[in-house]
Write a structure and sequence with these properties.
Blueprint: H1 5-11, H2 32-35, H3 37-48, H4 53-65, E1 71-76, E2 90-94, E3 100-105, E4 115-119, E5 154-156, E6 159-161, E7 172-174, H5 178-183, H6 185-190, H7 202-211, H8 216-226, H9 246-276, H10 286-300, H11 315-326, H12 341-358, H13 365-376, H14 378-393, H15 398-409, H16 412-418, H17 420-430, H18 439-447, H19 450-453, H20 457-460, E8 464-465, E9 470-471, E10 510-511, E11 536-539, E12 542-553, E13 556-563
Antiparallel strand pairs: 1-4, 1-7, 2-3, 2-5, 3-4, 5-6, 8-9, 10-13, 11-12, 12-13
Helix pairs in contact: 3-4, 3-9, 7-16, 8-9, 9-10, 9-13, 9-15, 10-12, 11-14, 12-13, 14-15, 14-18, 16-17, 17-18
Length: 571
């Protein structure tokens, strides 16, 4: 069942409205509190920048306990509750600044319990979204004007209570943490259940298969914070931070938290939107649309502002940084400053995805999420290549080596899913403690797998030397010199051809050009043939109706074929 957007909005719950934009995207639900997770990332980076063990400990506390998101008070009452308290039940009191607090229970509690959790209300204004945030933040970052005032009456379901032990600095917590994005992965991204019917999620499964752990991201970041080594069960992707000093550990911790923990949780929210989408009960899709909004909020963060021109700490900001290195900024993808082409393209996926959810067009979401995952990986590839070049060609030291290692860790499972030998080449050259780094080998190992990974090489671009107004020698955009690839051992049958991979759910296929293999070492894939009269392409023995889109990025041209499915509007 599908509706026009206008009709669908009328059918949705009355809580649906238009909210303040996030980097150009207009959410249809309140996600200011989610968007503020980047402030935890900023606080972590501030503490790490101190370059002291105390700073590292403070950063770890913020990573594990949070500070800015899901603010709530944990108050011990003098007397037990006279009746059971339900999550969301009304609670009121007085704030530090003397204003009234009218809010609700953060969690349920039984009759007789003395410890209760009380949430702080959030607003639609990103700047002043909550009046109290303390958590594990250093005292200089506390905001306490809207926190409960000590030694005042707290009214729970119209019954007054008091507390003589509550302290503002100690008893105000944060319920959402960057660590939690990883430690919750088993139940939220891996194990199939009533609450996660789509598990294991497609992109997460690649990372789980590579590392052998659902908490791989947390293990990586914790090792960086502690100066220890990971010990993944697969024997793949380990990182030994005991080989680094504080400089290398800083990079592993701050980039790992943003580009591993948060990165995957962004995709988790989009997958959750698919799980929650329904075409049968048209008034029940608010949860799906809210999940989608949360995904965008975690991608952008609050510091990007309403237009995306701010200075953020998360994935939107990373794409903008890397486009300056690779001359892929701007709407045409051929500039060295401004918003990245990747962010423009993601914006073109975020809004149609939201619209599909609001119009109950659930079948349209899967191919959109697939394209988002492919696009989000590009800055990770660019980052790996950038620091491979710096280490190999410019004698990069620990800082550059560590940055390259964490970017590699954030994308290598995607390469491994395509070709294990190419993944091994990248890992051996980029891992912590690598004997040497050969940029050309790393570059070729990536380029051989772009089609398989769904990555348009024009979006990756080439490493740009602004001073010379030219690409660095040997770091130009992909050419035809990296065609020879090692045989993949994924199935023991030769090179895995995935550029014409069929979506098993039948909901979409994005196909790029493929090369016919005649050496008997892999699958033979027929080249695509455009048939103008029927608008179809041949993929092996299958024919699909398509729409061809031609564009120009970074001085090169590309044609993208997208399979047309009933009910999906590609305009």
């Amino acid at each position: 069942m599908k509706f026009s957007l206008a009709t669908a909005i009328l059918l949705l719950p009355t809580t649906l409205a238009s909210f303040e934009r996030m980097a150009g995207y207009e959410p249809m639900s309140q996600v200011t509190d989610h968007n503020a997770i980047d402030l935890d990332q900023k606080s972590i980076e501030t503490q790490l920048a101190l370059g002291t063990e105390e700073g590292f400990q403070n950063a770890q506390n913020i990573y594990e306990q949070g500070g800015h998101s899901k603010a709530h008070a944990v108050i011990t009452l003098e007397t037990g509750l006279s009746a059971a308290l339900g999550k969301g039940d009304p609670i009121s009191g007085t704030a530090e600044d003397g204003t009234a607090i009218v809010t609700s229970a953060y969690a349920s509690a039984a009759a007789g319990d003395k410890v209760i959790k009380i949430k702080y209300k959030t607003t639609d204004d990103q700047v002043t979204w909550v009046g109290c945030h303390v958590g594990a933040l250093p005292e200089t970052e506390h905001k306490t004007t809207g926190c409960f005032k000590p030694n005042t009456t707290i009214t729970v379901n119209d019954v007054p209570y008091t507390s003589n032990t509550y302290a503002v600095a100690d008893d105000n917590k944060a319920g959402r943490t960057i660590q939690g994005f990883s430690t919750s992965a088993d139940s939220k991204q891996l194990t199939k259940s009533d609450s996660c019917p789509g598990c294991p999620y497609k992109e997460f499964k690649k990372f789980y298969d590579y590392y052998g752990s659902s908490t791989y991201a947390d293990e990586y970041v914790t090792a960086a914070l502690d100066g220890t080594a990971t010990d993944f069960t697969t024997g793949l992707g380990d990182a030994d931070f005991s080989k680094y000093g504080l400089d290398g550990r800083v990079q592993g911790a701050k980039r790992g938290s943003a580009y591993m923990n948060i990165y995957m949780y962004v995709l988790r929210e989009f997958e959750d939107a698919i799980d929650e989408c329904t075409e049968d009960e048209v008034d029940q899709n608010y949860g799906a649309a809210h999940a989608w909004d949360k995904g965008v909020a975690f991608y952008t963060g609050s510091l990007e502002g309403t237009t995306g021109a701010g200075s953020g700490k998360l994935l939107h900001a990373l794409a903008d940084k890397r486009c300056a290195n690779y001359k892929t900024c701007g709407n045409n993808g051929d500039e060295v400053e401004g918003i990245s082409k990747i962010n423009y393209l993601l914006g073109e996926e975020f809004t149609p995805g939201q619209n599909a959810l609001l119009t109950y067009n659930c079948g349209a979401i899967r191919p959109i999420v697939n394209r988002i995952a492919d696009l989000m990986s590009v800055p990770m590839i660019q980052g790996t290549l950038l620091y491979a070049y710096k280490v190999d060609k410019e004698a990069g030291v620990e800082n550059e080596k560590a940055e390259g290692a964490v970017f590699m860790a954030a994308v290598i499972p995607r390469v491994h899913d395509c070709n294990q030998e190419d993944a091994a080449i990248i890992y051996e050259n980029m891992k912590i403690g690598a004997a040497s780094t050969d940029y050309a080998k790393v570059k070729c190992a990536f380029e051989r797998n772009y089609d398989c990974m769904g990555v348009n090489d024009a979006l990756v671009g080439g490493l740009w030397n602004s001073a010379a107004n030219a690409y660095y020698e040997g770091a130009e955009p992909k050419q035809d010199g990296c065609t020879k690839a090692p045989k993949s051992t994924k199935d023991g049958k030769g090179l895995k051809a995935k550029s014409t991979k069929s979506r098993k759910d039948g909901k979409g296929l994005k196909a790029k050009s493929t090369k016919s293999r005649k050496d008997g070492k892999g699958m033979k894939a027929k080249s695509m043939k455009s048939r103008k009269s029927r608008n179809v392409i041949s993929l092996g023995n299958n024919e699909k109706s398509v729409k061809a889109k031609e564009g120009s990025i970074g001085g090169g041209t590309f044609v993208e074929f997208v399979v047309l499915e009933e009910g999906i509007n590609l305009e």
